[in-house]
Each structure stands twice: as structure tokens, then as C-alpha cells.
Amino acid sequence: MNEERRQTIVKEIDYWSRSKLLPQQYCDFLLNLYVDPDQEEDPKRRQASSRGIGKAVMAASQASGKQWLLTFGFFTLISLVVLYFNAFHPLLQIGVVAAAVVISLIISQRVRKRNEATGLVIGGVGMLLMLGAGMYILKFHGIEDWYWQASLLGFCAVFWIVYGISARIHILHLCGWVASLLVYAWLLSRLTDSPAWYGIQLYWLPLSGLFGWASWFVHQWSKPVSAVLFVTCALVWFMPELYAMMFTMETDWLQLQLLIKIALGGVLLFTMRKKWIVWVA
To answer: Which residue ranges does UniProt annotate as crossing the membrane (predicted)?
Structure first.
């Protein structure tokens, strides 16, 4: 059949489908007859796109005046907040950010019931907004002392841990512990004067043991929380080498230390495999 004629027939069938002139199963049957196999997906995508646009147009045409007013008022309010945010009082700025975070979390919880990935993305945006907007407010008002920034990061870490456990968002729970480790490393870099390699190990290894014990202690109530604590334990095990690389100049034996830690970690995981697998599985 002539390609031009084939395309004309396909467009006509597509029009019948959109206009409901024929039942959908008949239109699909005719499309399967006339559509080129190499281009079979195009009409389907075009049909799905037209359906989505049609639903949007129908929803807009059936919206009441009150709904139009609320929609434009909402976007106008957001525009005003963004444009005049710097002119707000600091307490009002904090309130606006807190309200935005709470709204994003509420929307995230509702969307997660229908689409888990989309809901997590919305919640993640809210969490990043908390940290990013907080840092922006501190910098805008000239509060650039490290302890204020560390306090903000510590607050976010605690909030992420608590909310991650309560909402069963395990990646957020883990991010909270990672942020708390960054705060701990920040404090060590500010409050200690170039400790030796064994001192750095003593700062971190007992903490790794504490997380390992917490993973064992919690596993009888919540396996996901226990798994997050176990992963955090593994991260803290290698934190001395990462801390030495970032904050100290003594990196001569860093590669050897890392190899020894990897070997010891592998031996511990192998010898205790029957125990820690029960904690996290």
C-alpha cells in the first residue's frame, strides 16, 4: 500500500478513536492492520498524549470561577513570596520555609500512596529546601560562623532521622546519619589540633562499634532501621581515613591503613555473617 495513503488511513482511525466514533477495541484492531511495525509505537504515543491533553483541557473548561481564582491566587502568592523574600523579617522567612517544607511533606505522603517514586522526589525536594533555604538565610543575614552552620546541619540531620523512621523512608534515615557524621567531623576539625593517626582512629572506631551494637539491639523491633544502622556502622568504619584525607596533612600511611581496614572489615563480616545477616534480612 502507498505510504501516503497508509498515513491518511491511520490519521482517520486516530480521529475516530479520539472522537469516540468507534469502540476503542475496533480502533486498536484497525491500527494494527494499517500501522507500519517500525512506526507502531508512534500512534499509541500520540494517542496517549492527545488523551492527556484532552483531559487537561476538559478539566480547565469545567473548572468553576472559584477554582480559577484560587489557582491564580496561589501562583500569585508564590511569586510575591519569591520576589520579596529578602525583605521579610527573619522570623517570617523561617516561617515561610517551614510552611513550604510541611506542605511538601504532606503532598509527598499523599502522592506516595499512588506513586512511590514521585512522592519520594517531592519529599526529597522539601528536605533539600530545608537545608538550602536555611543556609541562604544564615548567609543573607551575615551569620557565617561555622557553629551556626553546623547547628543547622545537625538540626536537619535529626529531623531527617526522625521523619525517615516515622515515614519509613529508609534512604532519608540514612542521609540523616550521614549528615550527623559530617557534623561530628566538622566539630573534630574545629576543636582538635591535628591529631595523630591513632587519635583519629580512636575518635571514630568506638562510634562504629556503637552503631553496630545499636543495629543488633534494634533488629528485633525493626529490620529496616537495623539495616540503616548497620550501613552507618560500615561507613563510620572507614571514616578515619576519609577524615584524615580531608582535614589533616598526614596521608603517608593512608593507603596502608585503608587496605588493613578493608581486610579486617572483610574478616569481621565473614566470621559474623550468621549474626549480622539476621539483623538486616
So the answer is: 68-85, 91-108, 120-140, 146-163, 170-188, 200-218, 225-247, 253-272
CB–CB of 204/236 below 8 Å?
A: yes
Q: Report the distance separating Cα 67 and Cα 11, nearest Å.
A: 36
Residue with cell 529578602: 86
Which amino acid is residue 181, in one-letter code? L
In this structure, the answer to whether residues 278 and 236 fall within a common structural domain is yes
Kindly report, residue by residue over 29-62, the tens digit of the pLDDT. Answer: 777 776 655 544 444 444 544 454 555 555 555 6
Angstrom distance (rounded) from CA 272 to CA 270: 6
Same domain? For 280 and 196 the reply is yes
Strands (E), 85-171: none
Distance, in Å, from the CA atom of 87 to the CA atom of 67, rounded to the nearest integer, reads 30
- Taking the model in full, what pTM does it have? 0.70
CB 166 within 8 A of CB 220: no
CA-derived radius of gyration, the chain: 28
Contact 108, 123 (CB under 8 A): yes
**How many structural domains compose the chain?**
3
